[in-house]
Amino acid sequence: MKIRQDDPGLILEIRQWGCYFLCLHYYIEEFRKLRFNIIDINNNYHRFIRLGYMNSNCYILDPCKILGYFSINTNVKREIQSYRCLNSEFEISEVKIKGIPGYHFIAINSNSVLYDSLELKERGKEYYITSKRVFRRV
Q1: Averaged over 94-107, what is the pLDDT?
Q2: pLDDT (tens digit, 9 = 90+) per residue, 8-33?
Q3: What CA–CA distance (Å, rounded) separates 75 from 136?
Q4: Is a pLDDT exceeding 80 seen at residue 87?
Q5: What is the CA radius of gyration of the chain?
Q6: Pick from 4, 1, 19: which is nearest to 106 by CA?
Q7: Element containing residue 64 per DSSP (H, E)
Q8: What pLDDT, on the 0 to 100 scale, is given for residue 5?
Q9: For position 110, what pLDDT does the model report?
Q10: Whole-angstrom Cα distance, residue 5 to residue 16?
Q11: In what order do the strands lie in the sheet with 112-115?
Q12: How much of the chain exceeds pLDDT 70, in percent?
């Protein structure tokens, strides 16, 4: 997925807090062979708020229902930063950016960044993993 969180076409709340929401879209693209554009992301933001899957500040209430909307049936668990995913699992890691308050989410596979809506590595930002959201397809 090529969409960056700072894209001016995105709804303000997604630009401010939408990293987890965008990571879910990354995995939806990968598993369903879809390609989202800015309009799709904005429409899904409104849809998932209306369905009760997330709050307007992009706080995800039920990531499995968002994935399930696209026929990706999963369960999710929170794990410590040292947890290693099994072959049947995929992860979205919560990271702390050095010198910045708050947290950010990125899609990772075996410590390789698959998708980061802020492109922290490319921008030379230091960060460390604080926890992981580990999904398993069921």
Answers
A1: 96
A2: 999 999 999 999 999 999 999 999 99
A3: 6
A4: yes
A5: 14
A6: 19
A7: helix 63-69
A8: 97
A9: 81
A10: 8
A11: 74-80, 127-137, 89-97, 104-109, 112-115
A12: 100
Partners of 105 in beta bridges: 94
Do residues 76 and 112 touch, judged by C-beta distance below 8 A? Answer: no
Yes or no: say if 29 and 99 are a contact pair by the CB < 8 Å rule: no
Res. 111 pLDDT band, cuts 50 70 90: confident
Q: Whole-model pTM above 0.85? A: yes
Nearest 10 degrees: CA dihedral of 53, 58, 60, 61?
-50
- CB contact at 8 A, 88 and 128: no
Measure the CA–CA gap between 10 and 52, rounded to whole angstroms: 20
Q: Cα–Cα–Cα angle for 82, 126, 108, nearest 5°?
A: 45
Q: Tell me how far apart the alpha carbons of residues 112 and 120 are, in angstroms, rounded to a whole number.
A: 13
Taking the C-alpha atoms of residue 123 and residue 121, their distance in angstroms, rounded to an integer, is 5
- Type of residue numbered 133: R
Q: What does the block give as tokens for 50?
A: 């209306």
The angle formed by the CA atoms of residues 70, 2 and 123, to the nearest 5 degrees, is 130
Q: How far is it between the farthest Cα atoms of the chain? A: 39
